[in-house]
Write a structure and sequence with these properties.
Largest sheet: none
Strand content: under 5%
Structural class: mainly alpha
Order of helices and strands: HHHHHHHHHHHHH
Shape: globular
Helix content: 55-70%
């Protein structure tokens, strides 16, 4: 979309409101900003700015999404026993020292592929959790296969229209009590462009 940052911010806000209104689990209420932030790792303040139609400021994720997302997991996730993850416990589970984890969080070192896999296992997240930019993370969370393009393409774009139509259809099926398997099948949203 061409135009000012304000126009882009308003378009993103409108698309997010559309998704928050239409996509939520059967038998529950629409998701809160806090719940989506928790699941995606997109900072709550950043998500609130996007939803308010404000051009979102820079975050630590602009420079290195991994650092922000790892910090988010340490702050928000708990162990199977319900206690917060400590840096020491996470480092030990990866077979590393606490200094190794500190260096990751400070951007002084990068994780290996093996370490990233271990972190994903510990926190029960997909590897994309550490690499998606905020709009990618939000598109993935809501099942929008068109990805971040859905948030920025004009309303007249065929991909946007097709995605909106599919989302509305799935929402209608959910409200009508259609079997979950049918909703999942019809919920396959349009893919990205080649």
């Amino acid at each position: 979309m061409s135009g000012t940052g304000d126009q882009r911010a308003l378009l993103i806000s409108e698309r997010l409101d559309f998704l928050f209104t239409h996509i939520f689990p059967r038998g529950s209420e629409p998701q809160s900003n806090a719940a989506v932030s928790h699941t995606t790792g997109v900072p709550l303040e950043f998500l609130q700015a996007l939803r308010a139609g404000k051009p979102a400021g820079r975050t630590v994720e602009d420079d290195d999404p991994f650092i922000g997302r790892l910090g988010h997991l340490l702050k928000t996730r708990t162990t199977d026993e319900g206690r917060p993850h400590t840096q020491t416990d996470v480092a030990r589970a990866c077979g590393k020292s606490r200094m190794w984890l500190y260096n990751l969080l400070e951007g002084k070192s990068k994780p290996s592929l093996e370490s990233t896999k271990l972190l994903c296992k510990i926190f029960k997240v997909d590897p994309s959790f550490f690499t998606d930019d905020p709009l990618e993370a939000l598109a993935r969370h809501f099942g929008i296969e068109a990805g971040p393009a859905f948030f920025t393409l004009p309303d007249t774009d065929a991909l946007v229209q097709e995605t909106k139509d599919q989302v509305e259809l799935v929402a209608l099926l959910r409200e009508a009590g259609a079997p979950a398997v049918l909703s999942r099948y019809l919920g396959t949203l349009p893919g990205s462009r080649d």
